[in-house]
Amino acid sequence: MRIAISTGGGDAPGLNAVIRAAVLSARTRGWDVLGIKRGFSGLLGEDEIVPLTTDSVRGIAGQGGTIIKTTNRGSPFAYPIQQPDGTWKNVDRSDELVENARNLGIEAIISIGGDGSLKIAQQLQEKGVRVVSVPKTIDNDVAGTITTFGFDTAVNTAMEAIDKLHTTAESHDRVMVLEVMGREAGFIALHAGVAGTADVILIPEIEWEIDKVCEKIMARDASGKRFSIVVVAEGSKPKGGHESIIGESLPGQDRRLGGIAERLGYDIQRLTGKETRSMVLGHLQRGGSPTGYDRLLATRFGAAAVQAVADKKWGHMVALQSPHLVTIPIEEVLRETKRVDPKHDVVQTARMIGISFGD
Amino acid sequence: MRIAISTGGGDAPGLNAVIRAAVLSARTRGWDVLGIKRGFSGLLGEDEIVPLTTDSVRGIAGQGGTIIKTTNRGSPFAYPIQQPDGTWKNVDRSDELVENARNLGIEAIISIGGDGSLKIAQQLQEKGVRVVSVPKTIDNDVAGTITTFGFDTAVNTAMEAIDKLHTTAESHDRVMVLEVMGREAGFIALHAGVAGTADVILIPEIEWEIDKVCEKIMARDASGKRFSIVVVAEGSKPKGGHESIIGESLPGQDRRLGGIAERLGYDIQRLTGKETRSMVLGHLQRGGSPTGYDRLLATRFGAAAVQAVADKKWGHMVALQSPHLVTIPIEEVLRETKRVDPKHDVVQTARMIGISFGD
Amino acid sequence: MRIAISTGGGDAPGLNAVIRAAVLSARTRGWDVLGIKRGFSGLLGEDEIVPLTTDSVRGIAGQGGTIIKTTNRGSPFAYPIQQPDGTWKNVDRSDELVENARNLGIEAIISIGGDGSLKIAQQLQEKGVRVVSVPKTIDNDVAGTITTFGFDTAVNTAMEAIDKLHTTAESHDRVMVLEVMGREAGFIALHAGVAGTADVILIPEIEWEIDKVCEKIMARDASGKRFSIVVVAEGSKPKGGHESIIGESLPGQDRRLGGIAERLGYDIQRLTGKETRSMVLGHLQRGGSPTGYDRLLATRFGAAAVQAVADKKWGHMVALQSPHLVTIPIEEVLRETKRVDPKHDVVQTARMIGISFGD
Amino acid sequence: MRIAISTGGGDAPGLNAVIRAAVLSARTRGWDVLGIKRGFSGLLGEDEIVPLTTDSVRGIAGQGGTIIKTTNRGSPFAYPIQQPDGTWKNVDRSDELVENARNLGIEAIISIGGDGSLKIAQQLQEKGVRVVSVPKTIDNDVAGTITTFGFDTAVNTAMEAIDKLHTTAESHDRVMVLEVMGREAGFIALHAGVAGTADVILIPEIEWEIDKVCEKIMARDASGKRFSIVVVAEGSKPKGGHESIIGESLPGQDRRLGGIAERLGYDIQRLTGKETRSMVLGHLQRGGSPTGYDRLLATRFGAAAVQAVADKKWGHMVALQSPHLVTIPIEEVLRETKRVDPKHDVVQTARMIGISFGD
């Protein structure tokens, strides 16, 4: 048996632990393992195919990143190719991929990735390539699994940032706005915000108003708590859209504000008169050594993916449905979207202890 | 409404986050909250009863320990009292407790604790005291809930210790033995061991033999991996009992070995000839700032306990049955014991990637 | 004896450890200690004066921030007062301060702060107020002392950020630009950059060119290291000034770029064609629990300041001149500026191991 | 030019950063670098000699341990050889080492190690081998340098342990005894103890009495602080010797107590009646990723060692005499011993804030 592993999309802490567990359990069964470099680029002749041995994966479980690299660009079904006139065109190169895989003797692919990679996996599956998927998302927005690796590390990174901002906010009586990842799903903001005892949490799933945000801050101020912490997911939307909070250029400057944190911070200071600072946590959330939770889950996923290959669960994704690991058809996963349910107990808990969602 | 909170048994990271969430959500409802110092000692006149306000719980969510203190000694139903002759006798002081609670106007108690506290809660409940319980156990051995707060922090602490021992083991070609908590349940050893990529994991639920442990170490040695990491739960039992691994005094010394780690380390060195060091992680596992996972879960439990009081769920324990919080009757919880299932996928995963359980 | 303590300027990890040590050692001598809230505001009737007891400082050594708060606004010698017409005017309120201090029976002030606070301390000293200063600067830019508390914590925070960006940069073959604090002194960028193995370090003390930065990145790329980490101090200046790197609006957007990291990242991507991301570490560098180094140094400074009061070292600052603590006249401190010496061995070391300063 | 690097004695965080900096700066000069495995074993034919390239040292600056391994056993001048009758005898194998080095074309050796390695370096130097040393000691007991790498990491590890024990001590009103490294020098205990706000610090340089220790604990108890933290260096000596604190077997057991922490804890509980727990931090202090301070210092030392080779500073050790790096003759270093000076300001600071040294 010869299998190949690929990692696609943004990196997440735990990718290497998945790779390690998959390689170790495949080697134990006597299988060969190849690593496809940079998503599927390795199978399109754009990058390498490397053998993965027990030595290749030694000591990597605790390391961030992915030893076989990853990429955000290019589905094999719509691969960007530069044309002679300099423009770019998406070309279907899936036949090429299928043939390369066959020539390399690859009998199954373990594809580790998020929604984009799952779609590719499903399409490859339909073309006869045997694929088993492992869900990967910092944002926790892949359906069918209670959670996936990387999310817990991101939540802890965000929470530690909130902890740090807390002391400086309190010492200076400031409002601190922290933007965390979450383009469509606010799980990081919600979990880190509650764990880090934020005062306001703004997520894509709950439409908010700047006035409600300021009300909360001023109510705290009035009760003697002269600082506040606001956590905002990058995809969070105010009522009336992004432009409703400072659409124009800054007064007296020819510079317009950038992301949600900067705009929000500007408006809070303008409306409350309180000194406000904003920061974007950005890629720090993707980096670093995975937490125990993520290392364990990633290891379980890696071993389970190899088991799924042995069980011929083609077109399935491994998933956590606590306390058990299961496999579910990728097409079922793709039919659903996973978002924060505003009625979920975590949101209710947050409200009960006085956190505002700006609604 | 006036409620009281108590924390009993060994401390666990997250206790303060439970207390904070319970106080904040009770205060939001306009309830009074009292803190009973040191388990139930405060209600027996042996310690204080303190008011808990929003100010009392400010900034404590990220702190280890418990602001109302805890104790391992003394059920009110069998409270140790020193007799005139100097001996100790257990006395039933529960009537006193009930009366003191009544005099203080306490209408319900939120009792945060492990098996011992759950039993007391059940007995108090039977005496007409209204109790809601919150499960607390570092070892993850309370039934009815997938997990509880403190466990994730303990696993991360143990995993980080394994990480640290790894580099020193590898630099010196040594065997390092790490003893972690787990008197009857091996969850910490199992989770931290897999996450930290231990080579051997010894837990109470799987009987092991010293020869199998040494075999694994020597097999690694033969393959060029001249170091090994052994994680052992404190309650882990070798075949033939504790004494089967060095029962006699150390040769040439009049000193006998102490705990499982010291004995095991001694025997590994004796039988494999490899330099071996052992350490006991001990109380480090109970201390420190809780992880994001634990702070969030503890906060949810605290708010859910207040909700359970509002819903008159007397004699119930709040519990996590992912993705939902539920309440279940304490007597059901007490009927079951929770241990590592040797057939669970985490154990299978560990075996698949080459970890030995010494069996 | 009655003394008062104030903390001024931006917060830094270790402030609380200074306060704690000063209070404990003053109380041991039987002295009274007052805390002046928010810089000197407390002595201008704009804020509180609070008693500081051993209980006030219990458990604070490991906490970021300052329990007596701080502020960036307002020297008592030029205090901003809003005029009836709405404009602001700076007013000398130092006589008021002196009188309030006398009325409170304050015999000496321990002033913890950076250059701004040192100037105020010197001026107060000249007005007959007895002052002892403790240097405080995240940037390590106060002369006369080898280092001060807060800097080590900031360096570790920045280094950990670099570590995190490293894995994501490597997985994606990206250039990551990290902006750290350092308006005029590049110590944080230099120390964190070398410790975190950055590839390019840009500091205010060494003028750099964008082309040299891109050369280094492309040389790495050519040798197979397809990612790079650039650490830039916020006050770092390219040859030709800030505007030399993208002064105009972004092509196709009406939005101009903001800080140095964003501009630099944009230019690197434009000139090298490599995917580049930038982030500003910002206030994370001021927050969090101080490192062991900072807690110890802060504790030594706090005790030394009380000793300096006992020794009547009015107008002196405590300082570290390894391995000894000394006191030096504030006016001497103010005569010098402390910057990275481009010939210092740390810079030479960095060059020797292949780090580029863009020059 | 061809140089070789060896690491000897116990491992310390930062060894890899020294190796990396030495290799990178040597390669920049066009030199060849060899790694001698396990101290000098590689040069005695007992282990390998490996080439060290820029690729060998990629990504290792932040890793604990040493990629060329280390050992505590065997000076080449007194190398333990097993005799035909099974006994061991120390044999001078230095001629063999010199010849092997010559045959490999090694022109200079960078020897990274503590007192033992320094002595070997000095002896080799006298035999005509060109050696430059880099000081390595967790305990900070090498003379001639203000500090060396590894110590700061060990202090932080110990301080974090104290932090964790603090919360559990306070929650349970317990005395916690923590044993840290320091056989003859108490720097780790002193620095971590002050930074972690221990109540009692016991070091080899200050003789103490168990009664004074208990007095301090009871004085705290009387003032309402019902818990205490005791930090004890492993080599710390009570007046009357180790046996003065529980020399006999435990009452009712045939087991004698082991190390200083266990004995001390037993006696504190016996004499004060307070529940006491002890733990030995052990090898955790040697492991883990080095702090920023240690990574920077190790990097400076590595580059400086190569510079010293270029400058033909044979028989010299690189050293930190803040703010400068210098080189000093190894024989000077060996003439001195470095211990905590009981009159140093850190000890005085500790006393001023109420810490007891048990004297």
Task: Give a quick precis of the structure.
4 copies of one chain form a homotetramer. With 359 residues, chain A is an alpha/beta fold.
Describe this structure in words.
4 copies of one chain form a homotetramer. Chain A is elongated, with a radius of gyration of 23 Å. In chain A, the strands form 3 sheets. In chain A, strands 3-2-1-6-7-12-13 form a 7-stranded mixed beta sheet, sandwiched between helices. In chain A, strands 9-10-8-11 form a 4-stranded parallel beta sheet, sandwiched between helices. Chain A starts with a strand and ends in a 7-residue tail after the last helix. With 359 residues, chain A is α/β, with parallel strands linked by helices. Chain A has 10 helices and 13 strands. Chain A folds into 2 domains: 2-149 and 290-322, Rossmann fold, CATH 3.40.50; 151-287 and 341-353, Phosphofructokinase domain (Rossmann fold). The first copy, chain A, has helices at 15-28, 94-103, 115-126, 151-172, 187-195, 210-222, 260-272, 292-310, 330-335, 345-352, and strands at residues 2-7, 32-36, 49-51, 79-82, 88-91, 108-113, 131-135, 175-180, 200-202, 228-233, 276-280, 316-321, 324-329. In chain A, 35% of the residues lie in helices and 18% in strands. In chain A, 62% of the residues are buried. Chains in contact: A-B, A-C, B-D, C-D. At the A-B interface, helix 1, helix 4, helix 5, helix 8 and helix 10 of A face helix 1, helix 4, helix 5, helix 8 and helix 10 of B. Chains A, B, C, D: Substrate binds at residues 137-139, 174, 181-183, 234, 277, 283-286. Chains A, B, C, D: Residues 2-309 form the Phosphofructokinase domain. Chains A, B, C, D: Homodimer or homotetramer.
